[in-house]
Amino acid sequence: MNEFQNVHVLPKTAYLSYLHTKIREKSASQQTFNTYSNQVIRQLLIHAAELLQFNDKGVITPIGDIYQGYDLKTGVCGVSVIRAGESMEPEYNNMFPGSPVGKILIQRDKVSKLPSYYYSHFPADIDKRSVFLFEPMLATGGSLIKAIETLLENNVSEQQIIVVNFLASPEGLDHVVTQFPNLKIVTSSIEEGMNEHAYMKPGIGDFGDRYFGTYSK
């Protein structure tokens, strides 16, 4: 049961569970991991897109009739938390061709688990766009909070940000939504918790390492 306001969890279907089974298996190859992860990422982005604002728009069809549909109210910008967040860029580019992508580099100390900010780069008009913040793993929430703070420093409001997340821990979600109550988060799973190494349970391992093939077996 989802107890968090503004946290949107993908509906738990048999097919989504099938995708998670493929992805979470320890022996899954990089190709298997990426193929099935990309399908979940697509679902996450579609769900995130439903949270955007739209205006009415009519277009003329090839037979001369008018179709009354919708157009985006504002532009969209994807922002990847390097490196794992970059896994979401290909599907984003397919859905929003020509839309910009920003970058944030935050690294977490392996001993203290505390995040440090290193770098960011955004389009000049990011404050006028809806922002998809790509952060697949939300464990303690420290890195995500640093990323959100970086966007706020660039005049992006909480209401403009939609976090696109693969797995989240209850502790991390509580940490983030308490600090940023107007933020929206889309995830495919709220996990059971974290172990003593701050890995989520049952978890998926290090998403970035597995997706980009630098996972130590």
Task: Reconstruct the topology from this structure.
Layout: E1 7-9, H1 14-24, H2 30-49, E2 54-60, E3 66-72, E4 76-82, H3 89-95, E5 101-108, E6 115-121, E7 130-134, E8 137-138, H4 142-153, E9 161-164, E10 167-168, H5 170-179, E11 184-187, E12 189-190, E13 193-194, E14 200-201, H6 207-212
Parallel strand pairs: 1-11, 4-5, 4-7, 7-9, 8-10, 9-11, 10-12
Antiparallel strand pairs: 2-3, 5-6, 13-14
Helix pairs in contact: 1-2
Organism: Vibrio spartinae
EC number: 2.4.2.9
Keywords: Glycosyltransferase, Transferase
Question: Summed up, what is this model?
Answer:
This is Uracil phosphoribosyltransferase. This protein is of the alpha/beta class and 217 residues long. The chain is built from 6 helices and 14 strands.
Explained architecture:
The structure is a single chain. The protein has about 220 residues and is α/β, with parallel strands linked by helices. It contains six helices and 14 strands. Helix 1 runs antiparallel to helix 2. The strands form four sheets. The chain has a seven-stranded mixed sheet, with helices on both faces. Strands 8-10-12 form a three-stranded parallel sheet. A two-stranded antiparallel sheet has the order 2-3. It has a single domain (about 5-210), classed as 3-Layer(aba) Sandwich (Rossmann fold). The protein starts with 6 loop residues before the first strand and ends in a 5-residue tail after the last helix. Keywords: Glycosyltransferase, Transferase. InterPro entries: PRTase-like (IPR029057), PRTase_dom (IPR000836). Its EC number is 2.4.2.9.
